[in-house]
Write a structure and sequence with these properties.
The protein has 198 residues and is mostly helical. It has eight helices and no strands. The longest helix is centred in the C-terminal third of the chain and has 20 residues.
């Protein structure tokens, strides 16, 4: 009986590791080299099987409210994260937020974040970014129907470009001025949307 207890205790006190048997019977994998013929980088059209009725489906369903809110939260999280890396990273995220809000016709928020980006660019004396933010501000103000302030932003951008000899920016400013002039002549005013939290 004592022998049975000792055998029983020794069996249960052994290490129950999964690697126990691999030390005794090591497993050797079969090495199969990849050949370039077996990897198909571009499938031929004959091998693709698809439903032809879906190719005529051209309706844009838009984006869901959830995906819009998720993208906004993601950009805000990136902004909070980039705040510790300095002013340039924050300016980039402010530009991203302004572009996001501009795409969704939320002009008041886009204008605010673009003004923040403009202030950071002015503190850094980054004249290319100042001109870029002034052009986006002019576009926002033109979309709101405030053409006088849009023209003021364009003239300020033009004077900065002339003072610092940024000739490629002069062509871009003229392009924006023509767009705003055409926008003013047609009398288009895009409907401003506000956040759901208001």
């Amino acid at each position: 009986m004592k022998i049975l207890y000792t055998v029983f205790i020794t069996l249960f006190s052994l290490n129950a590791s999964a690697q126990f048997f691999t030390k005794i019977f090591p497993h050797k994998r079969a090495q199969t080299p990849l050949s370039a013929v077996s990897i198909c980088l571009k499938p031929s059209p004959a091998t693709l099987i698809y439903n032809a009725s879906f190719t005529t489906f051209k309706l844009d369903l838009g984006r869901s409210r959830y995906s819009i809110n998720t993208e906004e939260a993601f950009i805000m999280k990136k902004l909070k994260h980039s705040a510790r890396y300095g002013q340039t990273a924050m300016r980039i995220e402010f530009d991203n937020l302004a572009a996001f809000y501009l795409n969704h016709n939320r002009f008041s928020e886009a204008k605010w974040y673009q003004l923040r980006s403009n202030a950071i660019s002015r503190n850094q004396r980054n004249y290319g970014q100042i001109i870029g933010s002034l052009l986006v501000l002019a576009q926002i103000k033109a979309d709101l129907g405030d053409y006088k302030q849009a023209d003021e932003d364009l003239t300020e951008a033009k004077t900065i470009a002339v003072l610092h000899t940024l000739t490629p920016d002069l062509l871009l400013i003229d392009h924006y001025a023509n767009q705003i002039k055409l926008h003013k002549e047609t009398g288009l005013k895009i409907q401003n949307q506000y956040s759901d939290l208001l």
